[in-house]
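Chapter summary example: a protein plus iron/sulfur cluster.
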Amino acid sequence: MFTEDELLPISALQHLAFCERQWALIHIEGAWAENARTSEGRLLHEKVHEEEFESRGECRTVRSLRLRSFQLGLTGQADVVEFIQTSDGTTVIPVEFKLGKPKIDNCDEVQLCAQALCLEEMLHVQIEEGFFFYGRVRRRHQVLFSRSLRVETEKLSRTLHALYKDRKTPRAVYEKKCESCSLIDICMPKLVRRKSARSYLESIITEEDYEATEGNLL
Ligand code: SF4
């Protein structure tokens, strides 16, 4: 069990699931680069959090609900939680707002599952499913909180705490996903991949540059 002071942000799980180095740059080194995508995402979340709750029929919608799990050591905020009255009691459904469309990897799903695990611990309920609402396609996308997704989320939370304790930033490994990473200019994965500054310079200077310096540029 974790204490209040040891809780780490749920959002860190999504960064960690995407790339360990991205997580470390943001959460250990305090780096953040806003691009068009992240700023649109931030504005979308601010809009979602404007009203706190509303009721429609059997559904009560609560926005900006604070979340925490002492078991996983996580804290955060749900965009929306729906409480639906049924003949069997109350069904609780977390809904997270995202830009764009469903992703190929499951970084977002882990984040939503962590929200569900927090709600289960806080409210003593079982939560079977959650949804993403994708702003661009304006559609809900269902996420089932399967056993394997729960296990993966718990494992990632343990990794998160272990890495946070170590406070080390891993070296960059360039992959295709780097091209969609908001931190690519800070991380410079292609540069880190090269063995030396010399080999980097060799790759960026042109033949004319080299000849102009009569071979003394390097
Ligand atoms: S640029 Fe690539 S290696 Fe660097 S933080 Fe982003 S995903 Fe990770």
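Key point: The two ends are 56 Å apart (CA to CA).
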